[in-house]
Design goal:
single chain; six-stranded mixed β-sheet; 6 helices; four-stranded antiparallel β-sheet
Length: about 240
Amino acid sequence: MKPKALFNWSSGKDSALALYKTIQGNQYEVETLLTSINKEFQRISMHGVHVLLLEQQASLIGIPLTKMELPKEPSMEEYQEIMNSTMTEIQSQGITHSIFGDIFLEDLRQYREKQLNTIGMQGVFPLWKQNTSDLIQEFLKLGFKTIVTCINGTYLDKSFAGRIIDQQFLDDLPENVDPCGENGEFHTFTFDGPIFKSPVQFEIGETVKKTYPKPKSNPDDQDEDYVFWFCDLIPK
């Protein structure tokens, strides 16, 4: 009997490829997709995608969805409380493993594993330490389709938002940008591929600029705010 697992679903390309590999590996029974949602805006945290599109994704994949709703700017204590409550409910279903699409961020993996260890669960990382250039090529060859929904203005300009990732997109990336955006350069929404029964239907809306204050180590710091560009996707 295969161990039961939850899959940490961001809606983007790394999640889609990791889920595909998990299904193909046939080692775990994926019971639910877990996604963090901004409760106020009803959008996926960081990716900015509306929850209606997330629900379409889960329906077309055929795996139940668990939404973890977070306040607009949760404190670490609030986040931990919500996470603990969510994981307690998930564990009550006999789920013992938690699967992630992380690739090479060591500190993030250590944080995840530390949190899981405290509640007796195990982390699984199907893409870990694989070459990101190879991964994105594999993703495209498998027939996945994904659109860029969030751009970190520190690395890329507005023109990259709303583009579907293809070879031209990859060729256009600056040398300091990881082809999978693993350092947070960009985030995506995957709308078609071998894990979907049919493509997710949406229209491309406007691209919106949002700024966030940088933490200041010195009160006299005059650093500019962080700039992000979000391309809105409108459910059909």
